[in-house]
Amino acid sequence: MTTSEQLFEKAKTLIPGGVNSPVRAFRAVGGNPLFIKSAKGPYITDEDGNQYIELINSWGPMILGHAFEPVEKAVRDAIQYSFSFGAPTRKEVEMAELITQMVPSVEKVRMVNSGTEATMAAIRVARGFTGRDKIIKFEGCYHGHGDSFLIAAGSGAVTMGTPDSPGVTKATAADTLTAPYNDLAAVEALLDANHNQIAAIILEPVVGNMGCVLPEAGFLTGLRELCTKQGILLIFDEVMTGFRLAKGGAQERFGITPDLTTMGKIIGGGMPVGAYGGRADIMNVVSPAGPVYQAGTLSGNPIAMSAGLAMLHHLNAHPEVYTRLEEIGDKLVTGFRNGLVKAGLNYTINHIGSMFTLFMTERPVTNFTEAKSCDLPLFGRYFHAMLKRGVYLAPSQFESLFLSVALTDDLIDQIIRANEESLLEIVG
Ligand code: HOZ
Fold first, then answer.
1. What is this structure's pTM?
2. Does the beta carbon of 119 sit less than 6 angstroms from any atom of ligand 1?
């Protein structure tokens, strides 16, 4: 038995399913999860000493590679002043200032501890601000594990076969309306049927949680227009796209201004952090400025703020990071497409910047129904073929891959070769 296998056996007796987040369990791809000991730059190393090139990057934030030195140093420097105060700090002010500079739609911002907290708070704020109860989310989008979002949810929820989770009350579910992604007509129909009842429309402006799915031309603009016309708040969940698809996230890349934005781990340099922010008049309803309650002892934690500040300052001062991410994404995806041709396969790759997914289907993937039509057993075989060749992918078809600037041209070539060989292995 490997050390990972031993740890997993023990973990299953102590932790539900042996993992602290379902998608890690490898259930969708078969086999046992690897227990990770360390990571540096583009590599991750497991408890058995196996090293892999990895394309998850902690689900997004490790955009500069693992344990990036300035972030590591910022954490070491901060630790000497203690770990948590539960009181305001200078760093929170610096963080708020930097976020509002980099993401101009965010005029005021509140720090929390995870993307889940950020999305839960954002819809409470939208309800408090508009005085309306219902929200619209899109099938296959995942906004963390808050009750209101576990309706037709993507990511681990669909990976585990529970896009509608038991434990969510009928009353809560009734306030979440869903539409297919990229379907403006379906949204208009929901708005007609629920006139003056919708507080917010929330979405991933580029989806990462049903695999990578891009907004079609006119979709985001159409949502913006509908929201403006009907006094509905448009919430962009940029937990994965923020500071990644551009310095100002997907909203900068697509030129759309949401009313509220949710952000995640990247603003903690990979540590447990989230935030929500947006128009000042909306954010002023948040307690103690206004009546909508939201709080947290660890919010704005000084160590996490220090890590996040180091990360964001670097991204802000080095636009070449974004140029390089585009180059890496283009080179890798071109190589993957060539690999498909060599293997005689016509499968779909969705790609934007440093996010992409190879879908095991010949059909285009523009929504949840199409994502779910993929050959999932084949994906499982592909995942293990890649792992055998030293490349660690997200262990589910319903996730995007995330690239970092730590990938050198040689490593990209190595990944492209692994993809070619893996595809030939699974079809051969
Ligand atoms: N798609 C998830 C991150 N938004 C995967 C991570 C997890 O659920 O543990």
1. 0.97
2. no
